[in-house]
Design goal:
Strand content: 15-25%
Number of helices: 11
Shape: globular
Helix content: 25-40%
Largest sheet: 7 strands, mixed
Distance between the termini: 65 Å
């Protein structure tokens, strides 16, 4: 059978872009469909604009720190409109850059929504086209719980386009997004209240990371209300009134309410049923949520239809941009190149761009003890960095290695503190290669630096 394309990709986010360009480099005829800006969540409403907001949120503290070093600086004032407009301009520049990369790779971009008609056919731009292989890479989207008043809340999609800076923002959610935006908005000068339904933020991370970030957030003036959920949200003359589940907890009044309780695979309206593609339950859970679905795939990102594949957040495996890119490239290498391989989802480093920042790779202490019991040995330290010797601030850095005492292998590395992501990125290479604690000990540290502590832990 003759097809219009060797590969048709639905979704021009991180995974779809990586896969389409790699497949085209092998000589495949490739088209990619996208009904939004090219770049996906990461470029448009995720990693990139968020990190720019993180940078912006650090300046008040830097100016304050300068006084400890003898600099005389005035009171900082943020031009919110300039800030938001500049970020949006950079996002659009990057989107255009990705379009140019597709053109150079020989990938046809179709700026419309695509849906599946049957196992080899998609409908896009009012026409039906066929493909030998189809890749679904439509990512995920934020979702609100089905609770009273949630229509008054915004999601992480809208926070990048607020017309005015919130005076007081309330955030529900204890994951990456809620925690990062709590720190961003506090750094920018807003009053921040974060509400979590559990006892701690960042479920699934090492306990010392969770504790270290929480302590830092509290010290920076973020109000954390734990073990509560929102019962109702209503508009009142003062703004938005949030009623909480615990009877002894007073309602909270704010002018902006951010819902950051989960993201789900963006599969609605794709026509998966037309192509006979199986789904599985996704990981979003909690009060007000019904069961959500993700596309079921095997280790080669192959769906229940052998010539249809899916990568990235739409599969709800490990929802990180570099993972989507890695899955996309592994798919293209396997199906169009000469290197059939799977993407390894183990020992993937990640960071939380909170204040303080944190990063991690490998097993947490709890995970390691579940697997190895008493064979696990922990090396850790907590100290004030040299930078704050003159600022007078009581900021702390935490570093931790999780080691198998039987083999001396380093199973995990965790850090809370400035530049944690930059430092753990390098440490991740060693952990991925199977380095031992002896390898760390025999490495000469760079002095004076915070990072040297990883090779001097005793």
């Amino acid at each position: 059978m003759t097809f219009d394309y060797d590969l048709f990709v639905i979704g021009a986010g991180s995974g779809g872009l990586a896969a389409s360009k790699r497949a085209a480099s092998y000589g495949a005829k490739v088209a990619i469909a996208e009904n939004d800006l090219v770049g996906g969540t990461c470029v448009i409403r995720g990693c990139v604009p968020k990190k720019l907001m993180v940078y912006g949120s650090h300046f008040p503290a830097l100016l304050d720190d300068a006084a400890g070093y003898g600099w005389k600086v005035g009171k900082p004032e943020l031009d919110w409109e300039h800030f938001i407009t500049s970020i949006d301009k950079e996002v659009r520049r990057l989107s255009q850059l990705h379009i140019s990369f597709l053109e150079k790779a020989g990938v046809e971009l179709i700026p419309n929504r695509a849906t599946l008609v049957d196992p080899h056919t998609v409908e896009v731009d009012g026409r039906k086209v066929t493909a030998d292989k189809i890749l679904i890479a439509v990512g995920g989207r934020p979702v609100k719980p089905d609770l009273p008043g949630m229509e008054n809340g915004i999601t992480s999609n809208e926070i990048f386009h607020l017309k005015e800076q919130p005076k007081h923002i309330v955030i529900i959610g204890a994951g990456y997004i809620g925690t990062e935006f709590a720190c961003i908005m506090r750094g920018l000068g807003s009053e921040v209240t974060q509400i979590t339904r559990g006892e701690k933020i960042l479920k699934g991370f090492d306990e010392d990371i969770r504790t270290g970030i929480e302590e830092g957030m509290t010290n920076h003036g973020i109000r954390l209300i734990k073990n509560n959920v929102i019962k109702a949200v209503e508009r009142v003359p003062e703004g938005l009134k949030l009623t909480l589940s615990e009877e002894d907890q007073q309602p909270v009044i704010a002018d902006v309410f951010l819902v950051a309780t989960g993201r789900i695979p963006n599969i609605d309206g794709l026509g998966l049923e037309n192509a006979g593609i199986d789904v599985v339950s996704s990981s979003v859970e909690g009060p007000g949520y019904k069961t959500m679905s993700a596309i079921a795939v095997n280790e080669y990102s192959q769906t229940s239809q052998p010539h249809i594949f899916a990568v990235g957040d739409v599969t709800d495996r490990l929802n990180l941009t570099p993972v989507a890119i890695g899955e996309g490239r592994a798919f293209a290498d396997s199906e169009f190149g000469t290197n059939r391989r799977v993407f390894c989802h183990e020992t993937v480093p990640t960071a939380i761009f909170s204040t303080p920042e944190a990063a991690t790779v490998g097993l947490t202490e709890v995970q390691a003890r579940e697997q190895l019991g008493d064979a696990v040995k922990i090396y850790s330290t907590r100290f004030r960095p040299m930078y704050h010797s003159l600022t007078g601030k009581q900021e702390k850095i935490m570093m931790k290695l999780v080691v198998d005492s039987d083999t001396d292998k380093v199973l995990g590395a965790h850090m809370v503190g400035e530049n944690a992501a930059e430092i753990i990125q390098g440490v991740a290479i060693a952990v991925k290669m199977g380095a031992t604690k002896k390898d760390f000990d025999s490495t000469v540290g760079i002095h004076p630096s915070a990072a040297e502590e990883f090779v001097t832990l005793r």
